[in-house]
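Could you join me in thinking about how sequence relates to backbone shape in a protein? We need material for that, and I hope you will provide a protein of your own picking. Label the sequence line and the structure token line clearly, so we can match residues to local backbone shapes. Would you write everything just below, so we can both look at the same thing?
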Amino acid sequence: MLTVKKVTKIFNPRTVNEKVALHDVSLTLKKGDFVTLIGGNGSGKSTLLNCIAGVYQADQGSIIINGTDVTRLCEYKRAALLGRVFQDPMMGTASDMGIEENLALAMRRGQRRSLRWGITNKEREYYKELLKKLGLGLENRLNDKVGLLSGGQRQALTLLMAIVKKPKLLLLDEHAAALDPRTAKMVMELTDIIIQENNLTTLMVTHNMRDAIKHGNRLVMMYEGQIILDIKYEEKQKLTVEDLLERFESISGEEFTEDRALLSKGD
């Protein structure tokens, strides 16, 4: 479903500020894979996600989604293939529009839009059924402005908007990091349910080590722009935070010093 092949991304090339963010990175996700991606500051995890999404163009290598080579496609042309949820609950939604209007915009992602589109009764009932699964009562607030929702409610809605068209690939960019612990737990539980019910292929960046181990069927760790660990299936189920730190230090020769990730050890 996703093939990243020998991707390199360099910022400010041939200047004193040159930064090799990704170096010869290769990664393959099969249909239904849920991969958690972790690493310290500057490891390249967010840059990799942005290259896949089309925010950044790769300097070398190729990116293929469901058989389509998107390496040179601009961001908006990849929209029909991708769903994405950001760290900031304020992103990904239009705060001055209603809940059903936001869902309608998401439903029309990648399509030509005109002034004539409207929301049919059948479409509205579909949105109600989707929202009901969240268990947050939003199905009774279809006309409420999204800006009135709490951070957790908004992030749950953004998850629905990201998957309403059954994307080939779902990208989650630390989507629970800005929430309080209780709300973050709720959003992560919803994430598991939505991914499983829809058999979505997912790549999730997180700074939380326990979340990286608990969720998904694979764990990938990056360091200095390269993938240094790819832990799969049964091996991942037996993994502990201490094991992960030990393996990182053994491969990199350094201690893991990312503060947010280390603070999440005891969550």
Notes: The chain is about 35% helix and 25% strand. Residues 2-81+167-266 form a domain with the Rossmann fold fold (CATH 3.40.50.300).
